[in-house]
């Protein structure tokens, strides 16, 4: 029989505080942030696959946390005292009130008189916002807007916005879960690969359709070069697997197939932005997180090749845009497809995360149910 653990008490004051954070070389005041992962007892108590990140947060009366954004959903629950909010919603909060913050939406706080507030900051299917001090998941508005205000050309704006989108994608909950060990279990890893195969198949269709629908000579040549380098990678991935399950999920199919179908309505330059600045740039982030997990599996070759090759495919697109210099009348359409593409990719990855996490839970529950039935079956025999 395993040794039972005793009830233990963790005092709030026992959790160390983060008081300031540096973002892009600028130090920002946080008040108090007490991330639960910074306390050994809490870290040992919480399950390793815990998908809720928690931290105590505190502002004294009159202290201000400037307006900022996060790349993930966040909820701030006031437990003691009160605060005034900044950003999208400007109002007063008291004990028991919750502020629900979608990704990318501006918000901030001022501690109310006379005592400020204590609250809980909660993130879901993610790591904590300040869990890694070297990589805080916060962008303060002056940091994000400065470069865009000083973008001289449409090319500058495209490239600068792409870095912002890429940074948000890097914080996707799928990658946070992968970095917490989501794919260490073989059954879960196989389910992930089943879902990823769907995206890989549609990626191939997108690359083919881009070549078939490209009209301009230079664009057609680039589309051909890209097609030749990507040809058959989805089949290589499938061939690297001993067994696989064919996944049909309406949401994953719809979001993945959008990339191929939308090409029929885009100009050649819009296709280039979608495929090279968005999809290939996202791949560099994806393989950065996933390739290390796959390095000791039979699928290592596929992930290693993409980890190296996709950076070159991004460069192909960036170099082409610099040489072609899109006109001002093209700007709106290019920026629109750039934003739409990143948004759809976030949806693809979110659906894969849902199918892997919750699908694995259903499998575990099914296995547990079968295990409980087994002794009864043995008795009957």
UniProtKB/TrEMBL annotation:
Gene3D superfamilies with a match to the protein in the record: Heme oxygenase-like, Jelly Rolls
Domain Cupin type-2 as annotated: residue spans: 56-111
Q: Which residue windows are transmembrane per the record?
A: none
Q: Where is the signal peptide?
A: none
Annotated protein name in UniProt:
Cupin type-2 domain-containing protein
Species of origin reads Pseudoalteromonas rubra
């Amino acid at each position: 029989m395993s040794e039972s653990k005793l009830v233990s008490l963790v005092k709030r004051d026992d959790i160390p505080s983060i008081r300031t954070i540096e973002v892009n070389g600028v130090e920002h005041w946080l008040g108090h942030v007490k991330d639960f992962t910074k306390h050994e007892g809490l870290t040992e108590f919480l399950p390793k696959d815990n998908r809720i990140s928690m931290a105590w947060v505190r502002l004294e009366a009159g202290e201000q946390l400037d307006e900022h954004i996060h790349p993930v959903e966040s909820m701030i629950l006031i437990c003691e005292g009160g605060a005034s909010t900044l950003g999208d919603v400007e109002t007063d909060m008291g004990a028991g009130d919750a502020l629900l913050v979608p990704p990318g939406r501006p918000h901030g706080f001022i501690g109310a008189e006379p005592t400020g507030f204590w609250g809980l900051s909660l993130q879901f299917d993610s790591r904590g916002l300040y869990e890694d001090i070297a990589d805080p998941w916060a962008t303060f508005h002056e940091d994000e807007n400065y470069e865009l205000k000083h973008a001289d050309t449409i090319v500058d704006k495209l490239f600068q916005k792409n870095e912002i989108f890429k940074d948000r994608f890097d914080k996707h909950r799928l990658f946070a879960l992968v970095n917490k060990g989501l794919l260490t279990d073989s059954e879960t890893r196989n389910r992930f690969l089943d879902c990823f195969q769907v995206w890989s198949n549609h990626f191939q269709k997108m690359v083919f359709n881009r070549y078939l629908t490209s009209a301009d000579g230079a664009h057609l040549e680039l589309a051909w070069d890209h097609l030749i380098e990507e040809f058959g990678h989805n089949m290589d991935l499938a061939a690297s697997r001993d067994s696989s399950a064919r996944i049909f999920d309406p949401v994953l199919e719809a979001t993945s197939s959008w990339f191929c179908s939308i090409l029929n309505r885009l100009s050649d330059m819009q296709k280039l932005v979608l495929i090279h600045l968005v999809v290939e740039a996202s791949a560099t982030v994806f393989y950065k997180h996933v390739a290390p997990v796959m390095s000791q599996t039979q699928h290592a070759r596929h992930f290693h090749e993409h980890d190296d090759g996709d950076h070159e495919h991004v460069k192909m697109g960036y170099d082409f845009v610099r040489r072609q210099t899109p006109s001002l009348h093209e700007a709106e359409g290019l920026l629109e497809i750039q934003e739409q593409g990143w948004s759809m990719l976030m949806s693809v990855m979110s659906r894969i995360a849902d199918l892997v996490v919750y699908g694995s839970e259903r499998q575990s529950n099914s296995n547990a149910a079968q295990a409980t039935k087994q002794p009864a079956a043995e008795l009957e025999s």
